[in-house]
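Researcher: Let's try something more involved. This one mixes different molecule types, so please make sure each is placed in the same coordinate frame as the others.
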Amino acid sequence: MFKIILARLQQGHKTFKYPDGLPPELPDRLRCRPLLDTSKCPDGCRACVEACPTGAITMTGKKATVDLGKCLFCTDCAAACPQKAITYSSNYRLAVRRRQDLVVNDQQTLKLAAALDGRLKKLFGRSLKLRQVSAGGCNACEADCNVLTTLAWDLGRFGIQFVASPRHADGLLITGPVTENMHLALKKTYDALPDPRIVIAVGSCAVAGGPYIDHPQAHNGADTVVPVDLYIPGCPPHPLTILDGLLRFIGRLEKGDPYRPPTAVK
Amino acid sequence: MTSNMIQFATLTSGRAARLNTIPILTMDDFQQGICSAVAFEHRVSALFGVPTSQTDLTQLYVVLADDAQNQLYVGRTEVKGDSFPSLTPRCPQVHLFEREIAEQFGLKPIGHPWFKPVRYHRSFTGRDAWDRPANETILPAVSDFYRVEGDEIHEVAVGPVHAGVIEPGHFRFQCHGEQVFHLEIALGFQHRGVEQALTGGPNHRSLHYAESLAGDTTIAHTTGYCQMIEAFAHCQKSARAQMLRGIALELERLANHIGDLGAIGNDVGFLPTSSYCGRIRGDVLNMSAVLCGSRFGRGMVCPGGVGFNIDDARAAELLRRLDLAERDTTVAINLLWDTPSVMARLENTGPLPRQIAIELGIVGPAARASGLARDIRQDQPSGIFRFVHVPVSTCETGDVFARAFVRWLEIQQSFDFVREQLHTIPAGAPQSLVGSLAPESLAVTLNEGWRGEVCHVAITDGQGRFARYKVVDPSFHNWSGLAYVLRNQEISDFPLCNKSFNLSYCGYDL
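Model: All components are placed in one shared frame. Result:
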């Protein structure tokens, strides 16, 4: 008993103050939204388009769009670019409400997720119980959802909780591209949720199929099976990206949120 | 090596051999060779089918690991038609490999004692080993299960969707009251067709398949994949790149072992360790992110070396974080061993006897907990591990305590390893140029991931593209071990036994 108390004192208090205080430190090599400066593009160059493993970049003339839903944030495009026209920003805020909002050109700011409206916000704004379903996820997205429940992030303080049964849940949080072999189980889990219900797709796979896009053994994301209300891209998304998306969704960041740039290693 | 095995080609991890040096044996010699090797305590690292230009001719390849000699034996045989004699009755550790061959190539292993699909998908060849009509939908885990009959026997079915934030799988328990007589595990829900997709590569997706074969084992699998490319391209990496890969691999081991010990704490209702380790695991993942921007090591390992270099400032920052994490980990985990109520739940729960571990071909910490000193970093070392020795940690009792304690020993070794490496970073370029891949060749790469042996085997065609890419995640060997340890246990101990193995679903399902 004495050792347990000593350990408690030694470990200290680690829960982040965010969103009331600053978010946790982010690594300087963190790769979030890729930004294309098409003014640097040589005529007819399609190096980035061809290098992208998932076809996330489209280029018409000198106009490029990036589908952040398909993006694996892997930097293969930046490595292929002869003009260093592609950089990866470290802005972790990536969650949107509509799939098409993830397709952006270099001028556009991302239309970040709006809060649930009216009745749903009243229902879920202070208590959102989620059933997580991994439908072909590689356990990275799952792990970073799990990490939100640890004492450092303490997801429970926002009223968000992962529950053991769809019958107890207000929504699904789906990871993975939805494999053919999970299609039925995912559908049944969704059907078991009481109305009204919401669905959150976390990670490149659940948003658009990830590296498995167009595989015959998998579908191209959660919204091929069930309607999705919140898209959180990333491979996997940083826990802060997931938390940011969830908090926007339940209307906890409507008064703004503190931002801290990544910490340079000195 | 015995006389039966002289016919096999010898190879080491990370080196390519011309395909024509791999002998084609008769089925009898092939199978007898495997049996002799296993009798000599060699392991079956891989056994898999390879299509040929003739539709009714399939080749079977075997990779046997001789851990004492740091050597691999590779042989092949040919199957004409749609069946071959099963070796499983004589050599239990090939049971799942034969089921996989049946499922992927539509070949029936005649005499297999428990002949079921592995991942529930159509074969690569159009043949079907179970003669299912082509228009019949194949549903995962829909097949026979072993049943115990009797008035007081009941069956408990769990999954595919589980109660926690965890991947899907189906578990069938045959119970008498609280006591489990038998557990059968049916997987395949995560099947995404990775092996098929790797065929014809390498291409711009191949590395990303390797990164997400098992997302918690990104470094071990990408290292295996990149070593494969480098073997075929005869690429030399710098010492610096090898060391950075080693650091990334040990950080991956640290994060997962620490997280799992916390989860074991949670499963016995001991929340202090559970809470602290959950947080410290995140701190270690953040160290990976300091290295390469990704908490799961995405982008760190690439063909020819590593994607991210390190300078003195970054090494110093990692060392600072390493010290803090080690201090907190030591306090948090020692609470487990100091608390009698925790120890009472860990000791004698889910024992895996040494002999069973040998027969099933168990790898990684689960094998070491049953007294087997198997560790690829020692037995078949590659990269930095050829120069730096990481002591192998073993226990004897094979129970949940042993699997937990081996992890704790390995955590300490990994902390020491990473610290030592960060103090002595060799010079060299982080990445070397990779040339074209040798045609008509075979290579095997073995790495000790945190769950155990991560085995990749690839065969190139005449153009140097992958004609076959085989992945064996350690979970492929070890799920049978978990099923075994549940025998005669309380069903309420399942989560604890499960967490002590913490196997991968997606790594198995591919």
